[in-house]
Amino acid sequence: MCPFKYRKGLWRRIEIEGGQTLADFDGIMREAFDHDTWDHLSEFYPEHTRGMSGFGEIDPLGGGNGAEVRIADLGLSEGDKLEYVYDFGDNIQHVISLEKIVVPESEVEYPRITAKSKTRKRYCVECKEMGKKTVAMWICIECSEEAGEDICLCEDCLTSEHEDHYAEEILY
Ligand SMILES: [Zn+2]
Ligand SMILES: [Zn+2]
Predict the structure, then answer these.
(1) What is the pLDDT of residues 53-80, one digit of tens each?
(2) How far is Cα 126 from Cα 165, in angstroms, rounded to an integer?
(3) How far is the CA of 80 from the centre of ligand 2 (A)?
């Protein structure tokens, strides 16, 4: 399961083999969350060590000192968590939990995405304060980090109230 750190309702279930590498994992993470597959570095970290001791950078074009690290060599057990940061400029964080270790099926190509969260509509917090219900298209990352919860916005409120803030489009 890999929710965004501040969007716990959004997740993907991914299956990957122990013999595969962090570069393989990175590739499926990018696919699962619509991140660019050709730009930006990323890195996996043991839980709670963000920025200190990661498993090495991964360059989407195949390089980076974390690219060849095998999943099996991370020493994870069921219930363990990892953090994944995509794009050190924007610093998009995901939390990954190892839910289960299972025997791989033959004729299946790994890694693969086996489930995703149901898309639940999010509503604009600014409009809500004014008693309106407007579907949110954006999340203000700056305000969300400050508030410790998701600050979702409609297009109008994004441009009027959060214009200079870093925001991302909501993935439904
Ligand atoms: Zn609004
Ligand atoms: Zn904002």
Answers:
(1) 899 999 988 899 999 999 999 999 999 9
(2) 15
(3) 33
